[in-house]
Amino acid sequence: MAEAQLLLADCGNQRVKLARFSVQEVHVFHWRDDQGRKRLAEFLQRESVGKIRLASSSEQGTACLKGDGFHSVEVELVQPHEIPLKVETEGTGIDRLLAAWYGFHKAQSAVVVADCGSAFTVDVVSADGSFLGGAIGAGLGLQEYALATACPHLAAPERLECGIPTETSTAVDAGTRRAFALALRALATQFSPTPEHKVCHFLTGGDAERLQSLMPGWQQEEHMVLKGLAALSQ
After folding, report:
1. Tag placement on the chain: N or C end, fewer CB within 10 Å?
2. Class assignment of domain 5-77?
3. Active site residue ranges
């Protein structure tokens, strides 16, 4: 009989990501979808997973996975007090704390972490390891979807990195992707706990790659929540 495996899991608004401590291979399942939860259950059985350390920003997702997708697997829900930050906020999601702590842990300096998924967050940790808070808003994909739904006559966005757009498609890109990147940079400047040249800036999440060219000086880092969970667990 195969030895039971321990996996790390990050449950967001739409998806759950699973990985081992190395975080070299990440498996993604859509927990809102019946077929997605079925594939998750099959994966857990196939991989002989016995326990999961779960960081969840969605109570609905946690309840759904415990009652369906995770089945008989033991689930340990990671709590905010386990993260070695001086948290100066209330009710902050475990995903934000883990990503921010991992950035601080890696940089060993003040950090700003922008996590760009269904929703975006911009969070700040000071040089002494204090989580100072941040911003939450609609993600880039959600903004693009809302614009396309409300204004279906507009052309699909087409990249233009700089300059004034002269076509509808590039104007839409400038008003969504480029404006989004500029907003993240402006928030980081406004929130900076020390002079910006002493702050390390991280960019993560599903839209990070699309934004990277517009975020000079920002370090792209995949799966910061899972990496934070792995570092914390080890």
Report:
1. N
2. alpha beta
3. 95
